[in-house]
Specification:
The structure holds 2 protein chains of 2 kinds. By secondary structure, chain A is an alpha+beta fold. Helix content of chain A is about 35%, strand content about 20%. Chain A folds into 2 domains: about 110 residues, Phosphorylase Kinase, domain 1; about 140 residues, Orthogonal Bundle (Transferase(Phosphotransferase), domain 1). In chain A, the strands form 3 sheets. In chain A, strands 1-2-3-4-6-5 form a 6-stranded antiparallel beta sheet, with helices on one face. A 3-stranded antiparallel beta sheet of chain A has the order 7-9-10. Chain A has a two-stranded antiparallel ribbon with strand order 8-11. Chain B is α/β, with parallel strands linked by helices. Classes of the chains: A alpha+beta, B alpha/beta.
Chain lengths: ~270, ~400
Amino acid sequence: MNINGTGNKIYATVRQLASNPNFNLYECLEGEQTYFLKIAKSKAENGTLEKEEYILKTLKEVSDNVEIEYAKKRTRPDSVLNNHFFFPEIVDSFVCKEQQNRRVLILGLTSISKQTSDLAPISFITKRDMVRIDPKTSVWILGKLLKMLVFTHDQNVLIRDLSENNILVNKAQHYVSVLNWGDALILNRKLEQKECSIEIVGVTKEVVKLLGGNPKTGEIPEDEQMEDSRYQDLLKKLIRGEYYDAYIAHSDFYAIARSIWPSKFHPYTTK
Amino acid sequence: MQLLGLYGRVNFILIQQSNFFYFFTQLKSIKMSRNDKDVLTDDVYRDFKKSVNTDRVTSKGQERHEKGLGLDPLVDPASNGVIRRSLNRMESEGLLFRLVMGVAILIEERLDTTGSFRRNVDIAFKALPRAYELLKKVLGRYDLQMINAIFADELDEYILCRSHAEMGIKIAEQMTLMVPEGGGKGNHGEDPQYGLFAGAYLTSADINRYGLKSYDFTTTDEPSHEPILKSQLERVFGKEVFNRVKENGFEIDPDNLPTVKQVIDKLLERAHTFVFLVDKDSEANDYWTTVIDQNRIIYLEDTLWLPEVKAAIIGLTEGVLTLSDMEDFLVNEANVSKDVARMIKRAVSGIPIGAQTLLENFDKIPLKGDLFKEKRDMWPTDETPGEDDSEEPTKTVWL
């Protein structure tokens, strides 16, 4: 099916990827490029997509500005923050008359994947592939999720959906992103410690599940990669809600993880 | 000649003497005075403001209180039948009735006036013409009616002052009758719950008859006390409060009163409800997020931009504004700076956008000038929603 976008663009839907009470999600093609096409389930849900568009555009604007500021201060010339990797870009947004005046968002994650099929929700790892990741693989996933929270919390944004179906990974390239921002809130006040803590705990629980562990306690299966209990203790501490500042959680996480496993590319590995 | 039914609106005129010249001049003057009173123009506001002590706009209400006379009945929640009614305004036209200003839309605003908020009525009074103009822009097809309320602490003299649903200069007049005590007693919370109770159970608004909702805003920086007490309900609304609730169509067991959350849930059935948390502390946020969806809590640094924030919320809810065009609206129509416009947009971006447009009859409500058989009819003559009198397109039309 073809959907007419703005400026004579035509988006050809390829297959339905997902749905929730607010929207249906498709893979679509515009020319040779694949995108995510999100369409409101009914006109009643147009507002949710409108809000999502506002949040994503705001995050992109802030991310670009932060990158410019960072470039002025960085010590290594090739060092970049790439906060825009963590959320989709709004490629197009329109109300589709042929689809009962429902709003359509065309979302791109082209910075982290050439094709949308390079990305998969982390729920596929445990529920479709029926495997668990090894601890070293969990480091880049959780590390990047915590980095994302450093950025979003700094912008007073609560994602409010950090479930396994909403976290996408590019396994080959080690990228992490959140797809649906329809539940997110952008606040004009500083976040409460409790609000930050909930999201830090949330991402940790999802990664503990990927490790085959218990998301309530943070307990993970024994693994030869772990020579001592430092990583296990860190996960338990994160899950207990002892961190309410994503920046500190992210710093502590990498300090401990790097002390156990020095920085080196470790291919996505499951057991 | 005798004029009957002159209570803010003229319903009918009984001519006892056949003096047509007198009749027409009298009718004209009545119409002019009604229009003057019922639309809040800058001129009318300016004239009224001359009679008000602008350093303390509530001095009239305060003086009455200091004389031991209590609240003026116009702002006493227990007075005039307790239920506040927002009604469509009809004017007789021959054998029919004409809808004067569109369907009545009610906006109730409930301000905390404890502690540092003691000046909130002064601020609201000063901002009233600005607020009114902005609300007219986003609610153009309706008859704008407002209830202003202030709340305090149960340890204060008056927990609640609540005006009638008014239009025009009466909105300003009733603000001056309030008694903000500036108390609060520092007891970890205030008592807005009785005002919320009134919004839920002691309000009758014609907009609800059409399946649409009115608007309800509470401004505070503190949690609400719980529970809702029978003794305090009777103190605020009088001993007959539960009969009035029943008269208004609700059943409440006085010995099993609803919680604040249940009251707000009930209020949400008839009003787009929002809480403005101003310069709040964690305790206030922790509390309010347990009784109302976080999307309906608007965080503000102060009350300075309340008129613009309310207009933005209503514009989004009514589908008059989108997030994309909001900044332009606020800059061009409200004359705020771009920074303020961005701040307001951010503050309101989480609300349920277009919520009013999704309700039954949103596109069908009567408009100003429509004619009705009876004064309290919902729908104009020979029109019921869903009926289409237009000719079928397949019929041959001769030119």
